[in-house]
Amino acid sequence: MDYNLLIEKAINSKANALAPYSNFHVGAALLTEDDKIYTGCNVESSSYSLTLCAERTAIFKAVSEGERKFKAIAVAGDTDDFISPCGACRQVISDLCGNIDIVMINKNGKSKTMKASELLPLAFGNKYIK
Ligand code: THU
Question: Which of these, 41, 105, 29, 109, lies nearest to 70 by C-alpha position?
Fold first, then answer.
């Protein structure tokens, strides 16, 4: 599967990051089952813990528009290494997107793709909640 467009959208979404506290800009792009793309960026609050990561911004945008099935999420940072989603985002990806591809992009536009279950093995999930 070719994720070139998804990667381009994630990289471009970095420009929308509102990150005056960390100055760390992140972009994300989420691919739906029927090939629509929802983008996201990190949005920071002066009460730091209320900050929303780029991945969750994209996921909540899509879900709030009625989307329920996804194929992949790309995340881009100005990092030497491939940026890797935080633990909170891994949980939300696992819960709301399932075992999708996670495309991690570095500052040079190079990427590495892994499955959600590889990044969050033994995930908690709704199967535990009766
Ligand atoms: N951030 C993301 O948006 N996604 C990640 O995968 C890692 C961290 C944001 C949160 C915060 O605005 C900034 O990066 C520094 O942690």
Answer: 29
